[in-house]
């Protein structure tokens, strides 16, 4: 079996896909993308084609290592996202060849289903209580929301109070034991993060996410000392070496590697195992499409420390198309009582709607994240 064709696609709302074909008729799909830099990642996949053509797609570890180590410059969001999508596609092919889900090839399931959460609110969150109650009524046991709008490095307490009011409204609407994850989104700097984390304690959140950016990972310990809330982070880290630094820095309770950013199934499986040795939980980041979600679930199935999974159905970013539009077997994501069963089909278990993929690719999206500014005109973290 040899790789003979590689095709890339950019489709709404903001996703990128790669299709790898073999000379004996197998096709694998991956989702290589950095939100806002999709065309750049696509170009990186195209640059990697000479390393892939004619290779045996079953030699996943060797191909991964060649893409990572043979280029001299390595790591970073663009290269690791390109590799992630390629890696997903290779695992998809391997599973199809052996007529087994990827998780069976990784050692088999250690759980029967995966707890999921749903997003509520938007970039500037509002009406989150009603949305959270709707998700609860649909069977979800947890939601995630953006905590706040833009915050200066030191800002006013009225913005803090607005966050507390939103979280309080969800707690009141959904009850004491409903899971509330609060994403600081890297918008909050340490001085305000300490205040906000301490004041959120009374609402017993499931976790707070990115209270500060990982470029300031040494500060997680200080925030952890201030507030008894689990801290989650990791969507902006891309290799096992990045996560080693994070785990050694301490203070983090949950890691959130992204299966389309952090080197794919091959690398995230290693990252998850490393976190388990630190008694740190796994909750993969996934505000993306159907292939990325299936890749996450494959790793969740075989990782003891996985406890909840993000998914993007209903998320505010998905305009034009959603997760289920690009697959012909949407029943694979029939959530029940807030849980998903693992895909049963071979490989990643997705039957891709290639016709829609090709139609969308005729007018590739150019999604960019917004540029925010503070009242004084300075750039704000989005």
UniProtKB/TrEMBL annotation:
A family per Pfam: MR_MLE_C
GO-annotated molecular function: galactonate dehydratase activity; metal ion binding
Domain of life: Bacteria
GO biological process: amino acid catabolic process; D-galactonate catabolic process
InterPro entries: DgoD-like, Enolase-like_C_sf, Enolase-like_N, Enolase_C-like, Galactonate_deHydtase, Mandel_Rmase/mucon_lact_enz_CS, Mandelate_racemase_C, Mandelate_racemase_N_dom
Keywords carried by this UniProt record: Lyase, Magnesium, Metal-binding
Mandelate racemase/muconate lactonizing enzyme C-terminal domain segment(s): 125-230
Annotated NCBIfam families: PRK14017.1
Protein's recorded name: Galactonate dehydratase
Organism for this UniProt entry: Lactonifactor longoviformis DSM 17459
